[in-house]
Design a protein that fits this description.
The chain is α/β, with parallel strands linked by helices and 229 residues long. It folds into two domains: 87 residues; 140 residues, TIM Barrel (Alpha-Beta Barrel), CATH 3.20.20. 41% of the residues lie in helices and 13% in strands. It contains eight helices and five strands; from the N terminus they run αβαβαβαβααβαα. The protein has a five-stranded parallel β-sheet with strand order 1-2-3-4-5. α1 packs across α2 and α5 packs antiparallel against α8. The two termini are 29 Å apart. 30% of the residues are buried.
């Protein structure tokens, strides 16, 4: 594909225009959840949120959300609007939000929508050490996809595989169910290349995990030693 420049621009006029354009494209009168996908360091957060608040007052947006916002940025946004959610990266292998973002959202009644819960496919158990990725693939430079890291992750997955089998579930479904069982996590956003993958991902909700089973997974996870960057 062709490289394109992407600008994070969340000025008052831009927010209102983009919302109006989205309403036209969707053929609807309102948007249930309107999220700012990335913080815009060139525009005051207050200006962005005041624009979204205006859209809410006009009935064009029902709830305001953000994505990839830190606690400090959520606090700043909260001065101008009542936030409903924050969409952030989270997986068994990337749990940094547990330190600050999760406690903040729990204290302020915000939902957390996590993306990349399967860590770009690594937690499905289908990745092999030394697998080749094109230079344009994010995984080509990600330390978690180095052969030694993939080997360590697969060793961990093999320890919880029997649990998945007793649930008649795939490793991916077990991982997704674990993700949704974590404190503060409201929604897990999962990519799919085709309808069948989407159906299989949704079946994660059919998997039931007891407290003891979640604890078992956590103990195996605690023993996972990933190579340093």
């Amino acid at each position: 594909g062709q490289d394109v420049d992407v600008y994070k621009y969340a000025s008052r006029d831009s927010i209102i225009k983009e919302c109006e354009d989205s309403l036209k494209r969707l053929g609807t009168d309102y948007i249930d959840l309107y999220q700012q996908h990335w913080p815009d360091t060139t525009t005051p957060i207050a200006e962005t949120m005041e624009a979204v608040q205006r859209l809410i007052e006009q009935g064009k947006v029902r709830a305001a959300g953000v994505s990839n916002y830190s606690v400090a940025q959520m606090e700043e946004a909260g001065k101008s609007i009542k936030l409903a959610s924050n969409q952030v990266p989270y997986s068994m292998l990337r749990r940094d939000i547990e330190k600050d973002v999760v406690p903040y959202t729990q204290q302020h009644d915000l939902g957390i929508l996590v993306y990349s819960p399967l860590q770009l496919g690594l937690l499905t158990g289908k990745m092999k050490p030394g697998q080749h990725f094109d230079a344009s693939d994010l995984r080509s430079t990600n330390r978690l996809f180095k052969p030694e890291a993939v080997t360590a992750v697969n060793d961990f997955l093999n320890k919880i595989r029997p649990l998945a089998e007793t649930k008649n579930a795939t490793l991916g479904q077990l991982v997704l169910r674990w993700t949704l069982a974590q404190p503060g996590i409201t929604v897990a956003l999962v990519g799919a290349r085709n309808p069948e993958q989407a159906v299989q991902n949704a079946k994660a909700m059919d998997v039931q995990l007891s407290f003891e089973e979640v604890d078992f997974i956590n103990k195996q996870l605690a023993g996972l030693n990933l190579p340093k960057a």
